Amino acid sequence: DIQMTQSPSSLSASVGDRVTITCRASQSISSYLNWYQQKPGKAPKLLIYAASSLQSGVPSRFSGSGSGTDFTLTISSLQPEDFATYYCQQSYSTPPTFGQGTRLEIK
Amino acid sequence: EVQLVESGGGLVQPGGSLRLSCAASGFTFSSYSMNWVRQAPGKGLEWVSYISSSSSTIYYADSVKGRFTISRDNAKNSLYLQMNSLRAEDTAVYYCAREGLDWPTFDYWGQGTLVTVSS
């Protein structure tokens, strides 16, 4: 199975900050990398697919980059509704696997 | 509007069985592959099972293989997960998730149903 490792595991930031979350795969996954946002008690929501494609309806302050083994999710200017947990997920091979999550908290 | 609504969760004893359902609406269910993904309390996301649109291809996570069975009824726009020989470590919120058509991703999720395995 492909292991996905996110860093950091938690992050404190302020409204208006630029934030970057990193995801590393244990082997090359080309661009088969997706990002999700999950708020407490809610289902995950797809933000980014294919490493850098913005899902319909997702604000443009979210962006993704990377290929191979190293990927990033960037939020250009944090909004109050962005405080949540973020997960990366590889869809290169079965089983699909997730990173352990990055909890983004208000400073 | 795409909607996925899970049901069937609850409290079950170790070794028991439970059948989860997911009712789909707002899209052509028979055209999409579907998945079950779970999340143990306070933990991350774990993929459980996949079924193709015609049920011709099915995959399971090693952790549930031989105990869980995924199925679907396209006439009823419904997805199912039959869970047998349940263990404490199966305790989780179970989500049904639609597979994207153009890219392998979980593009829509239900609200989840909680399964608790405890004596």
Characterization of the model:
The complex is a heterodimer of chains A (107) and B (119). Chain A has 107 residues and is mostly beta strands. In chain A, 0% of the residues lie in helices and 50% in strands. Chain A has strands at residues 4-7, 10-13, 19-25, 33-38, 45-49, 53-54, 62-67, 70-75, 85-90, 97-98, 102-106. In chain A, the strands form 2 sheets. In chain A, strands 2, 4, 5, 6, 9, 10 and 11 form a 7-stranded mixed sheet that branches. Chain A has a 4-stranded antiparallel sheet with strand order 1-3-8-7, with no helix packed on it. In chain A, a hairpin with a 6-residue loop joins strand 9 and strand 10. The radius of gyration of chain A is 13 Å and the shape is globular. Chain A starts with a strand and ends with a strand. The model of chain A has no long low-confidence stretch (mean pLDDT 97). With 119 residues, chain B is an all-beta fold. Chain B has no helices and 11 strands. Chain B has strands at residues 3-7, 10-12, 18-25, 34-39, 45-51, 58-60, 68-73, 78-83, 92-99, 106-109, 113-117. In chain B, strands 2, 4, 5, 6, 9, 10 and 11 form a 7-stranded mixed sheet that branches. The N and C termini of chain B lie far apart (40 Å).
> Which assembly state applies to the chains in this document?
heterodimer
The ordered string of helix (H) and strand (E) elements of chain A is EEEEEEEEEEE
Low-pLDDT stretches of chain B: none
**CA-CA gap between termini of chain B:** 40 Å
Major beta sheet summary of chain B: 7 strands, mixed
Overall structural class of chain B, as computed from helix and strand content, comes to mainly beta
Shape of chain B: globular
**Total number of strands of chain A:** 11
Q: Strand tally of chain B, please? A: 11
Give the fraction of residues assigned to helices of chain B. Answer: under 10%
Mean pLDDT of chain A: 97
Largest sheet of chain A: 7 strands, mixed
Counting helices, strands and paired strands, the structural category of chain A is: mainly beta
Determine the mean pLDDT of chain B.
Answer: 98
Strand proportion of chain B, as a percent range, falls in: over 45%
Q: Give the overall silhouette of chain A.
A: globular
The N- and C-terminal alpha carbons of chain A lie at a distance of 36 Å
Largest interface comes to: A-B, 24 and 20 residues
How many whole angstroms does the radius of gyration of chain A measure? 13 Å
